[in-house]
Amino acid sequence: MVVLLMLVFFEIVGINQPIVQVGQSVINPILQFNVGLVSRMYQFTQNVRSWQNTARRVQDLELKLAQTSAQLGKIEQLEKENQELRALLNSSDRSLDRVVLTSPILSLAQPAVGLPLESGVRPGLAVMAENTLVGVVTQARNNVAYVGLLWQKDSPYVLAQTPTGVQGLLMGDGRRVLLTEVPVEEELEIGQRVVTSGQEGISAGLYVGEIRSIRSGASSAAKTAVIEQYVTFHESSLVEIRL
To answer: pTM of the entire structure?
Structure first.
């Protein structure tokens, strides 16, 4: 009631219009600022929603990329296994009924391969990867064969020789394959092939590797050669056990 009376009084005395103009000059900037603020807040909200949608799309693309990479990895693994199997089947130096094809079990603490039922695998048999002797079966139980790799210190000894007939004993030092117990007067050459000499469970002529270096002490009656192998058990998708 009081405000209404004041407005009537201002209208009568003729000062209502200046007051309205002053009020508008004060209120209009505030209204414009509020409108601009609301508009910017709305635009920011829209941008946030757009960013969230983009982030979700990126996550979806990353997931699809990971799935595709995994599928490609499986395809490459299958292709590698097919190539290795094809190479084994094309070899003519053995009969398939004397070979057990299997894959390394990488989840176990020591080198091992899976075995089919009644495989006939026993300790002392040769384990081959890409036609290279990489180890010897040490135990066979519960459909698993444990393998002593040639470079391991506790691997079973294997008789080996060069093409010239120089013989020695294969053993490991924990990192490398060594041809040991070679008489110091015997001739060894860098790059010579080394193959098995033949023993129970391991036939003669299995490829082991090539001589990379030769060590001999001045007072030693024997010398040792370091053997280079170009395949490894753990990187092979398919290995064979010679029965």
So the answer is: 0.62
